[in-house]
Amino acid sequence: MILLTDILERSLKKAFIDQRVEGSIYDPKIIINDVETKQYMLNVLQDELNSCQEFFFSVAFLTQDGLAALKTQLSDLHRQKITGKILTSIYLAFNQPAVFEDLLNIPNIEVRISKKQGFHSKGYLFKQTGYHSFIIGSSNLTMSALKINYEWNVRLTSYNHGKMIQDIQKHMEKEWQEAELLTPEWILNYKNFYQPTTFFKEMTMVNEHSLIDKDVPYIVPNKMQKIALANLAELRESGAGKGLVISATGTGKTFLSAFDVLQVKPKRVLFVVHREQILNKAKSDYQKILGGLDKDYGILSGNKKEIDAKYLFATIQTISKEQILAQFPKDHFDYILIDEVHKAGAKSYHRVLDYFKPSFLLGMTATPERTDGFNIFELFDYNIAYEIRLQEALEEEMLCPFHYFGVTDYERNGELISEATDLKYLVDEERVTYLLEKLTYYGCSGNSPKGLIFCSRKQEAQTLSGIFNQKGRPSSYLSGDHSLEERENEVERLEKGEINYIFTVDIFNEGIDIPKVNQVVMLRNTQSSIIFIQQLGRGLRKDHSKEFVTVIDFIGNYKNNYMIPMALSGDTSRDKNNLRKDTFDANFISGISSVNFEKIAKQQIFTSINKVAMDSMSELRKSFDLLSNRLGRVPYLKDFQEQQTLDPLLIANKKATYYGFLENIKKNEATLTKTATIFLMIATREFLQGMRKQELILLQNMMNDLDRSWSLENIKQLFEQESLLVSDEIIRSVLNTLDLSFYTGSLAKAYKKQAFIEKIENKVTLSPLFKKEMNHAYFIKLMEDILDTGKMKSASYVPTELLTRYQKYKRKDVLRLLNWQQQMVDQNIGGYTTSNGEFVIFVTLKKGENFSGAQMAYEDELLDTSTMKWFTKAPRSLNSPEVKKLMHPKDWTIRVFAKKSDNEGTEFYYLGDVKPVEETIIELEKPTQDGGKKKVVEMLLKFSEPIDLNLYRYLEAGQD
Q1: What is the dihedral of CA 609, 612, 613, 615, to 10 degrees?
Q2: Between vectors from CA 359 to CA 356 and to CA 364, what angle results, nearest 5°?
Q3: pLDDT for 367-390, tens place per residue?
Q4: Overall domain count for the chain
Q5: Would the CA dihedral through 282, 284, 286, 288 be positive or negative?
Q6: Distance of CA 171 to the CA centre of its chain
Q7: At what angle do helices 949-956 and 576-584 cross, to 10 degrees?
Q8: Do 119 and 230 reside in the same domain of the chain?
Q9: Which one, of 42, 44, 14, 45, lies nearest residue 28 by Cα?
């Protein structure tokens, strides 16, 4: 039995005496915020909270955003009845009253205020099982310190009886006893004398890129706008008469268009919008940029007809009327701009665009993708002048930071809210109480909430609004049934603070500007990534009244939950591995924004990911059409990979080949032979993933010189030129793959011995059958597309390693990449197999009650990021051949592959190589499923390098 004290001794020795010593998760560690690796102090705090039994923070400064980033972890701890303490101060009057109010709303934290002058500590203590971990350094509990600033922090681990931890605990307890308890009365008293420091005022100033500051006498373009303006000018110089700008909501599209008008200097401008309430704001923004007389600016709407203005701002509903159009010459406007141009598929827009003949037409949208068949890209001659999406806009600090909370929706009788939940339960008194508790807990930036709440049904929204009013939360309800005037009145009331919330269903997704919104609440199933981002975007416009936006998404038992990480990350590949990663490791969000899921909500997302068919024909066709519209032609696999719009594996494998998919939708260029389709099918299955680049490079070079014979030395030189791993075993394995001799069983039968190459007297040439198909240009095009795409995808794999850690592999692929001469049937491999000095282990961690193929209930388990408890097959004893191999590990490379459950399919994460801990190898008996007993050998396996912590957390999380 390995003692924790022994592990801690090794960790200290590795850190402070000899770095070559085997380490563990307990190693002392320096923590520095690193944007490139996406590793932050915030992650470490969250991980410690996820596993602790109690905690104690001693921090001088706290901000609402820093506290917000930990609220889901604190909520999960509350469910487990785990509590903590925070000791803070009023040093320099940095801590705002609002952050103390937030602290008071967290039920499992006790807070005290130090009376010490100059209290400036930054320490985080966690009681874990059998030990304590603590972090000391420079980071306060502010989002900047946890994610952005250059900070130095050290994480240390101590056995419970260590002197240092005893000293820290004694000191903290002493300070705690001398400090003052945080109470509502204390906060009220603090408010009375609180004056923010100059430093804090400057720190919280909202940088709005000079776009809405009315006191700025001269407004200049921001970084994004300068690039877009240069691109637009270049477009016009090339003779283009149209341009499309794709820009996230809140990034200053209207100002951009005004700057472009300024540089073009047209005689007359038409600005077309789809909602009347946008007109006055657009007109005002233009006046700030262009200046001039008031009479130069006019409105064309149902109420105003100022058609003689130089700069005319019109609603599409009015300008599209025949009698209105007839009042203008066709060339009246030199420059026409269409706002929210993704709506331009409507007949009203067609009438306007067909009528006018401007010198330049500019379209602006945050979401050009449409599902109704209309091609926005074609409308603008595929001229994309500039594109900036949510992630980039956050990186450029163009949007208000947000904190997204994936919150578990209300449970009734042990069941979560779902699509089928009856309305009466959606508006049930207990659910409303639960909603209000969560809204209070996650809070907002500012004096009071100014929130939009998106519901699934009109009656739900209307009823909830009424109940909120009864409970002292002033709110209103709006839908498409309300007039423009009614909507504007309610928005004005929200901005003035007369109401806290507007409940809505089918409006406010777009085309409305409410900068003061500081809370966005989602009480509905996510139906599309586009709508999700549109609703999120309602709060992202910067405003001096808020430092961040709180987004609270109530996640129930919805089949579309998988869309949430897809929307937040911007990843449209439909790759389940990516979605899982983005759920358990939400570091894809840039800047001081954050994404956090409560534990149960996270499990709901994983369940949805596992159940959904990512390759449904309707979704694949939708992705195909979107990319086809963007490119103006039939896309190929490499286009999907380059544009990052869809994982090409999904669309290629749907009908066995991409040729089969194109044939199904009647988009193929020509008809190929059965032989050709089998070659494409083999290449799709074996090469498209790009796991090993050698096959791709060799086959592509052979295709470029059909009649050449390749010696083994030629092949070796080729691989060396490409900086690829090379050995006699690798070359033999590559050739066995290309001549199909590696494959056995059902795969050999499916591949029909259609070898790509043949070997004759140590020379390699293309097979006659393959060369024959090379006479068809369309076959060559599709084959090269597979190889080019495979090479692009190979960038995800380390070229100098046989296998890449944390990538997923099927058993077949593992054997091929480890240079096995022939494939083994999966059932014959089972949990492990050995050959040529390689011992490969495949583990399913969450086996469930009906785990197929198991004689007994195996209890394989990841104990920590460095250790796995593992069992051999049964019956086995200490004298079994494979056990003897494990007892002499120096002769073997032992590799572990694991998946969470069978719900993840047949692929396993490669976790790395291990060594058995000799003293833990024991023989024991375990009950079998037929009621008997069989011998089995149990042992601990030690990883040579710790497993990625986020992957470990995911694999060890509860059942999905």
Answers
A1: -50
A2: 80
A3: 888 767 789 999 999 999 999 888
A4: 5
A5: negative
A6: 41
A7: 100
A8: no
A9: 14
The DSSP H or E segment spanning 607 is helix 599-611
State how far the Cα of 124 lies from the Cα of 139, in Å rounded to an integer: 10
pLDDT tens, 55-68? 999 999 999 999 99
CB 602 within 8 A of CB 568: no
Q: Which domain holds residue 821?
A: 808-956
* Averaged pLDDT, 411-417: 87
- DSSP 3-state of 427: coil
Over range 73-80, report the average pLDDT.
96
If asked whether residues 606 and 626 sit together in one domain, one would say no
Q: How does DSSP classify residue 277? A: G
Q: At what angle do helices 41-51 and 71-79 cross, to 10 degrees?
A: 0
Give the whole-angstrom CA distance, residue 184 versus residue 137.
31
Is residue 200 predicted with pLDDT exceeding 80? no
Q: What is the pTM of this model?
A: 0.86
Dihedral in degrees, nearest 10, Cα atoms 713, 716, 721, 723 = -160
Query: Is the pLDDT score of 203 beyond 70?
Result: no
Residue 614 amino acid letter: M
d(CA 324, CA 329): 11
- By CB atoms closer than 10 A (0-12, 13-18, 19+), residue 412 is middle
Given a contact cutoff of 8 angstroms between Cβ atoms, the answer to whether 370 and 376 are in contact is: yes
Q: Are residues 538 and 656 in the same domain?
A: no
* CATH assignment at residue 437: 3.40.50.300
Task: Please name the helix (run of DSSP H) or strand (run of DSSP E) that holds residue 143, with its range, or none.
Answer: helix 143-143
Place of tokens 């005002």: 284
Residue 849's pLDDT is 60
Cα 464 to Cα 417: distance, rounded to the nearest angstrom = 15
Nearest residue to 645 (alpha-carbon basis) of 620, 608, 613: 620
Closest CA to 657 of 683, 638, 634: 683
Alpha-carbon distance 785 to 802, whole Å?
25
**Stated length of the chain:** 960
Q: Residue 619 is which amino acid?
A: E
- Residue 602 sits in the same domain as residue 663: no
Dihedral through CA 452, CA 453, CA 459, CA 462, nearest 10? -50
Task: Enter the tokens of residue 23.
Answer: 């380490």
